[in-house]
Amino acid sequence: ANDLLAEAGMKVFDERVFADISKNWKRIKFSERFADSRNVNAPRQLFFWQKGRVFRYWLQGEGIKSEEHLYIHFRKRNYQMPPRLPGEDDAVIVAPGSLLVKKLPDGGPDRQTVCSLNPYRGRLFEAIECKTLCHIPGYIKK
Fold it and tell me: 54, 38, 56: which is closest to 46 by C-alpha?
């Protein structure tokens, strides 16, 4: 509907304000429906909640980029409560298989933290994972 309104010259709100996390991968990444030219999955990225705000940090070249989301949606992932509740300065990190409570520096996570808490094992690994999962009836749904 937004496309029709935009083509008619009307102003429309067309931003995604939430992070929709895919259930189809072990690694935490945007769902296939959510990823587009504005929301590109980075090989090394980390999602977390801190002080009431949701962030995605990702490595780009030698730097670290970040963006804020209104909320994060975990589709059909069975997360348990962290072993302890977060303190005022803690972050809740969305990791594969668990929610982790950790202190992060004020400027956000460093390169090592991004890489270690949501590991990217390479395109070959993810292609094998996809090929395996695609053979399970009903596993990957769009």
Answer: 56
Residue with tokens 């520096």, as numbered in its chain: 105
Question: Do residues 90 and 101 touch, judged by C-beta distance below 8 A?
Answer: yes
The tokens for 117 are 């808490």
How much is the pTM? 0.76
Length reported for the chain: 142
Cα 97 from Cα 84, distance rounded (Å): 16
d(CA 17, CA 112): 27
Q: What is the pLDDT of residues 22-42, one digit of tens each?
A: 887 888 888 877 666 666 888
- Residue 95: count of CB within 10 angstroms of its CB: 19
